[in-house]
Amino acid sequence: MAKDSIYDKDAADYAVNFIECLSHTKGKWSGKPFELIDWQEQIIRDLFGTLKPDGYRQFNTAYIEIPKKMGKSELAAAVALLLTCGDGEERAEVYGCAADRQQASIVFEVAADMVRMSPALSKRVKILSATKRIVFQPTNSFYQVLSAEAYSKHGFNIHGVVFDELHTQPNRKLFDVMTKGSGDARTQPLYFLITTAGSETKSICYETHQKAKDLMEKRKIDSTFYPVIYGADELDDWTDPKVWKKANPSLGITVGIDKVKAACESAKQNPAEENAFRQLRLNQWVKQAVRWMPMDKWDKCAFAVNEEDLLGRVCYGGLDLSSSIDITAFVLVFPPLDEDDKYIILPYFWLPEETLSARVNRDHVPYDVWEKQGQLKTTEGNVVHYGFIEKFIEELGEKYNIREIAFDRWGAVQMVQNLEGMGFTVVPFGQGFKDMSPPTKELMKLTLEEKVAHGGHPVLRWMMDNIFVRTDPAGNIKPDKEKSSEKIDGAVATIMALDRAIRCGNDTSASVYDNRGILFI
């Protein structure tokens, strides 16, 4: 607390009482009074009860960093409603911000449900669901959803901003528009920033995280900024339940320790999950230094693959063209014939012949050795000759029963039309979390279970070792072509083909996704 600030218990009590008149909206808590957990009450009392000598609030920025499932959305919604309906501000403008409209809508929907469950508020508040706006009629104040796409709309007169999952902001533009000068006309604007830790250290969230740490550790002074960080320290043992408790102040209330224990056990078995566990459950800024695929586990799946044995068998293709001067990858995945069989992977790669030696010198990758071994093919000229690849795939189609070919819809238009002309069924495959996450997780699961056979193909092995994954707030993953500085095209093609093989199998009956649902790790 600043030297000249005062703690006004009445103001703090008022804010706490307003929130505790609201109701929870989800799960087993739904409909029950919103009783603030100790850590939440401390934040509300400090923010709304710490006043300057002139009687206005001292803090105008609150940075709350906390693991997932701690009651973040409920607290953010309650603060948004308090600023809109309970702060005595005429024509207050309160905005809910997130990376995209869907994420920004999460807190809005909670707030709208809180209004519907409150007889006092529902009489005075109008909910405009289509435009994601809540209007408090007595003061003509509103709470409005905004997303990063809408950052160009200047001219705000802000009384409050609730920023949800600040770490997912694609850049600093929306943050700057909402926080720099936009609340100057108000006496006590509040920027309420709430987030889990991220992995991108060149971001507005990490910058704000660093400021919060500097203030907490007395390296900087800013009496208007209120920092709260719940998380494990860098050297803490991430498998220790005491560390979980320290990082998760709502443990045993909003999330059971059994859930965290199960997630930890899973992360111990699968090194690729360790980062996600530490980021989402322990709120650590995990720099993506751990490659995704544990190569010792991948190498255990180097079971011999005999192409002759596969003749006539059902399989699915994945095609990743990247650019015409780069590696093109085509991968076939054969679904297992029975319980004891494995998913068999047959990869093919092409590079332009004329750029091969220059590329070896530049990338320090043994493309020339792989070409001599027959593991990589070259096409004439200095760009990949797609006609050559189409002919090759056509010949593969005569040997194997290629049911479908999945492709990244970017840049493959002409080749796709040509393949369709040859009679192949070609299906576009999105590169976002929705499409990529299930088969990416499935590939890891099958690898750990040794249910994959890839014959130790060196080019595919190199690409698997290059993969870094990106994780979204819901725990979905996908290969990250930006972070994976080396080539991963073959891995992406494998994941796409694996998805089709799992969904369609050897016949058109139900897929494993239908039988047991998508895998959530």
Describe this structure in words.
There is one protein chain. This protein is α/β, with parallel strands linked by helices and 521 residues long. The protein folds into three domains: 6-229, Rossmann fold (3-Layer(aba) Sandwich), CATH 3.40.50.300; 241-281, no CATH class; 295-516, Nucleotidyltransferase, domain 5, CATH 3.30.420. The chain is 38% helix and 17% strand. It has helices at 9-20, 38-49, 72-85, 101-116, 119-124, 173-179, 204-216, 241-247, 257-269, 271-281, 295-299, 356-363, 367-373, 386-399, 413-421, 433-448, 458-466, 489-504, 512-516, and strands at residues 6-7, 50-51, 61-65, 93-98, 125-128, 133-136, 141-147, 160-164, 190-195, 225-229, 314-320, 328-334, 343-352, 377-379, 401-407, 426-428, 452-453, 469-471, 477-479. The chain has an eight-stranded mixed beta sheet, with helices on both faces. Strands 11, 12, 13, 14, 15, 16 and 17 form a seven-stranded mixed beta sheet that branches. Strands 1-2 form a two-stranded antiparallel sheet. Strand 12 and strand 13 (343-352) form a beta hairpin. The protein starts with 5 loop residues before the first strand and ends in a 5-residue tail after the last helix. It holds the Pfam family TerL_ATPase. Residues 38-213 form the Terminase large subunit-like ATPase domain.
